Known about the structure:
By secondary structure, the protein is an alpha/beta fold.
Amino acid sequence: MKKPTHFLVIDDDQINNMLCKYSIRQVNGDLETITFLEPEKGFEYIISTYSSSHAEIPTVLLLDINMPTWSGWDFLDKFEMLDAQIKNQIKVYMLSSSVDPKDMEKAKANSNVVDYIVKPLNKDIVEKIIDSHS
């Protein structure tokens, strides 16, 4: 994937979403950052935006694990079923407050997950994410 131009944040915590936007803006204010409190809405956005796009949109998705409707794991199960054209544009990072080793192992074992990040997101982590896709 090329250097990301977009960030998507799917987390039911409004404060975490604002913190993510702030951290991303500190690194590069030109990066578009869209947040979703409901994973279903984020999934619908991905389908509508990335399947109809004729140009590649290199995107980083920051995905929480524990949410009330779909968990991050539920989201990943549905993401796995998407067309490769969509999945190839999106690099998924689990962003969670969970320090449970089982969550970390499960995330690292998932072929759609690049890495596991323990909240809170900060400027240094954003820089590492962007640099890893340069």
